[in-house]
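User: I'm new to structure prediction. If I give you an amino acid sequence, what do you actually give back? Let's try with this one:
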Amino acid sequence: MKKIAVFSFFLVFVCFCVFAENVVPSRISKVTVFANKAQITRRASVKVKKGLNDISLEVKAFRVDKDSVTAKVFGSGEILSVQLKRIYLERQPQENINKLRQKIDKLNAERIKAADENNVLSKKQEFLDSIIHFSSAQVPQDLKTSFPKPDMLKNMLDFLDKTYSDINEHKEALSEKIKEIDKEIDKAKRELASLGGARHKEKKVINILFSSSKNQSVNIESSYIVYQASWRPLYKVEASGGSQEINLTMFADITQKTGEDWNNVELRISNAIPLSGMRLPSPRSWFLDIRRFYNKSKGMRKPAFGGNALTGAWKAESVVQSAGALNYDSALKEEAEEAHLAAAKARELPLSFEYRLPEAVNIASREKNTLLPVFSRQLKGNFYYYVVPRINPMVFFVCRAEADSELLPGRLNVYFEGTYTGKTFLDGKKAGEEFMINLGAARDIKVKEEKISDKVKETFFGKLKRQTIIRDLVFKITVENLTDKPKDVHILDSVPVSKTDKIEVKNVKIDPSPAEKNYQDKEGVMLWEVNLAPGDSREIKIQYTLTYPKGTLISGLDL
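Assistant: Good question. You get back a string of structure tokens that encode the predicted 3D arrangement of the chain. For your 559 residues, that looks like this:
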């Protein structure tokens, strides 16, 4: 048994050495980044002998989809197999991880040294304090027999003053140093945690068995899917008051913490959605039935009455949405011609599209994001002021533009006249579809909505009150131009819409009539397009009657 064990160990050791010798140098030449993963292409050149050749390319990525591994050999012969193999090691092979650990160890050593030095200074300060304490008790006793000379007192005070100052300055400097070291340690630990994708300390290789028909030099190209890589669109829009166009720029916000650096690679970004174990949906019968609600305490109960009777009618969509912001410096106007962003080359595929960056790029595996420009386009726009007073009395200056190609949803950062004005979100758009961009809040248009009448009618029959509430409501919207220039203002408001026969909305009167009713297919929502002369103001009156059962709580009725 002992001989068998020794032989087995020797066999494994020899196989490992032979296998290690077959690992050939390779480099990442091309990367295609998807929404939640990336396809890596590695290339290598190697001399092979006639017959069977065992070739391996090392992969340093943390997570690799083993089923995605493929390889091509450009040479005379046949590929017999391609597979991903793992070799377990005592330490992670990723250089970034090892460097970060070494950095953390070095920073910890520096922190200990600074803390020790700070402790020595504290002891010196305690020693000086003890001298002062001693002198406060002993010197007055000595003064009874012998008074110190002025020079000696001055020298002593100067010594104490200078020594105290030096110690305090040194301690403050050490405290600041320790704080900076702590920040660096925390940063390195966070970056190490973000790169800690490898649960096991292992070495991955793509193993290729190639049967060569002759002695030759061959080129190898292998590709595989890795995780912990992603991209998302990030937009910047620039507009100016005197122009009827906007400049829309899309950036690729790339995150890659795969474990291997992408150095001097051909980079592509794609909106394709690689499937992962997804099956085709199968049709099934569609049955309709009465929905039954069950209450544990009372058993079966009737469907809830009222629902969201008026909720939808009172809510208009606002253009202000929340998203992350880019920290761009506005371009300075100079006499020299402004440089343009390098545009990526677009390629439309049957199921998606992808962009190829014009130059090779370097993206290290790290916690930070990389921002790369993809394209920049001039789009014609229609500029006007926009307000939904029932939702928000603030007036916004907006631009309605038409997409000339498919746009992905993403964060949008707005610059007007070269100044950053805010952030919003761009929904996905098809070619020819309109979208609206919020350019910022306006202070030169004043809008006010007020309820000017709310009359409740009650009818008495003897001592009994009528069981139906009747309310006559009148609202007034006032819009005023405070500038010396004409302004186009789009005002959106709504009247309630009943979703049940228990609630009635009738006697609706609107003055003036809206330019569009049921705006964007939203029932009850109206649009007025008002052109205001300098200093001019307009009024809009909305009147209607509501009837509903007395004592009923109505969803959406917050008048």
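You can read the tokens as a compact description of the fold. Here is one thing that stands out. Residues 95-143 form the longest helix (49 residues).
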